[in-house]
Amino acid sequence: MNLEKAAELSHAEWREMAAKLKQSAETRLFIGGQFVDAIDGGTFDNICPVDGSVINKCAAGKKADIDKAVEIAKRSFKSGEWSRMAPRNRMAVMYKWAGLIGENAAELALMDTIDMGKPISDMLKADIPMCINTVEYFAECIDKVTGSVTATEYDVMSTVLREPIGVVGCISPWNYPLLMALWKIVPSLAAGNSTILKPAEQSPLSCYRVAALFVEAGGPPGALQVINGLGEQAGQALARHMDVSKISFTGSTEVGKLIHAYSGESNMKKVSLECGGKGPQVFCEDLEGELLDRAVTTAINGIFFNMGEVCSAGSRLIVHAKIYDEFVAKFIEKGKDAYICGDPLDPAVNLGPLVDHQSQARVLGMIDKAKSEGGRILFGGAAPANGLEKGAYVIPTMITGVKSNDYVAQNEVFGPVVSVIKVESDDEAIEVANNSVYGLQGSVWTDNYRRAMRYVREIECGTFLVNAFEEGDMTQPFGGYKQSGNAKDKCFESLLSYMNTKAAWFRLN
Fold this sequence. Notes:
Blueprint: H1 3-6, H2 11-24, E1 29-31, E2 34-36, E3 43-47, E4 54-59, H3 63-79, H4 87-103, H5 105-116, H6 120-141, E5 148-150, E6 156-164, E7 167-171, H7 177-190, E8 194-198, H8 205-216, E9 224-226, H9 231-240, E10 246-250, H10 253-265, E11 270-274, E12 280-283, H11 289-304, E13 316-320, H12 321-335, H13 357-372, E14 376-379, E15 397-400, H14 407-410, E16 417-423, H15 426-433, E17 438-439, E18 441-445, H16 449-458, E19 463-466, E20 481-482, H17 491-497, E21 499-507
Parallel strand pairs: 7-8, 7-10, 8-9, 10-11, 12-13, 12-18, 13-16, 15-16, 18-19
Antiparallel strand pairs: 1-2, 3-4, 5-6, 6-21, 14-15, 17-20
């Protein structure tokens, strides 16, 4: 079912579809173009965050399964069935794949909603359209990859070639299960690599389905495989494998550091990391009127959208003292009831549960820690009590009185919790914004573009926005500074990062 038809479904219809999909969804490993059980037969429970029930049992891939997939991927790469396919032919497969994703939009959207509690309306309005856009964008890039002929002496020709790396391992997170996976596997495939995806064990369903659609579109079975399993088993085995030439990882900074170590302990494979964030949004003293209203509304969406489970979420609001009281009052007025917890299968609901009860306990614990350090809870701060007690829900929360070095201001919450920090000057705002081990995304709101340029120059982050937040398109590099990682997703640069550069020197005489 495509997006247009899916948008017409009611809550009851989504619930009926979900009940059927839980029974029919494929949960085995996708190896060599076929769904197979784990070699040792192992499984684990896939838990629903809405009520804690078991959705289904998923195959638990381990080292032996990774070894099998790598062997197939290596053989496929060397055969040239994908790596040496003519660029326009590879483009045709990718375009057909994008079309199949669109045709199966309802099923793919429902899988992510079932797995991690993302509101179905968000899947239809944001995630699935961006998934299609991702595949189409990198398909367009395939025949735009060129080498060069360098300037040399008369009897020499020197060329620079770009070649696929080989076998690439991709490890994707659960907060955007399908989209983040595609941000990795699509540029890898567009570059001609054989690719193995290890999705987050909390949300594998859509990744299995999209891999099967790739083969249906004409992709070779060995070019894309999916091995679900625990990170310390399947993920570690992929990152340590001697025949894997690159690992692309999105997840926590802690695990990102381990991936680097695994590379050094094995074959020094290339490592691309997109890790945590603690996004600062600065609101300057010159804000007023419509711009102030828009800034507040954007700040609300920048932290509460997707339950705050966004690495680039604007979780630190740094507000000048001159507008502080007005800003806080408007944020309460507009934000307190902007996101309401409910059944994510209801198209009217815009806030689902966190991914699991462990995350819920961690987020609630961080709120308690903020209170112990002097923070004031202006709204939220608890789990809902309106029949959602079995779910991993947290009510959207606003905390004021936060200091720059407080625990909640320094650590990634990954939940619908915003901290507000008062500052007296631009100098202090920049110091507070940069007082973090992270540097993924930030923004400034001001009516003075000279001031804005200063913030662009001085804030330490990989993506920075002026009078906006969480905007961009596929041409915009997405990635961070410092402990937010070293990679750029989306963009043409991402595609090139999945290729090797080779210099060739021809002595003609």
